Amino acid sequence: MTFEEYQKESRKTAIYPHLGENFVYPTLGLVGESGEIAEKIKKVIRDKESKISDETKKEIEKELGDVLWYLSQLATELNLSLDEIAKVNIEKLRSRKERGMLHGSGDNR
User: Are 96 and 109 a contacting pair, CB within 8 Å?
Assistant: First the structure.
């Protein structure tokens, strides 16, 4: 499945207030789901000596799916293509690597 296909299919499952003109809802969902992943990782560090079980990996996989869904909805609300976002991101990272700029900080490296 391509990002484009995912974006189209996931949109068919979107139900939230002011669909099509509400970038806030998917933004908050994205942050919330990311927080759920962070909580699971935190508990692995705290309770499991940083060893992730297969069960926890499956739980994280589900949460990553939720992150992907909200990311897709946010991109759609902003009329952005996930395929294009992925392409531009890889181009940016390749350029940074070629210039030895992967380390460091700042958006415009």
Answer: yes
Q: What is the reported pTM? A: 0.90
Half-sphere CA count of 78, side-chain side, radius 13 A: 16
Q: For 9, how many CA atoms within 13 A lie in the half-sphere containing its CB?
A: 7
Show the domains of the chain with their CATH numbers. Answer: 3-83 (1.10.287)
Hey, what are 35's tokens?
A: 């927080």
Q: Tokens 């900080």, residue? A: 105
Secondary structure of 53-106 as H, E, C letters: CHHHHHHHHHHHHHHHHHHHHHHHHCCCCHHHHHHHHHHHHHHHHHCCCCCCCC
Helix (H, G, I), strand (E, B) or coil at 26: helix
Per residue in 76-95, pLDDT (tens digit) is 999 999 999 999 999 999 99
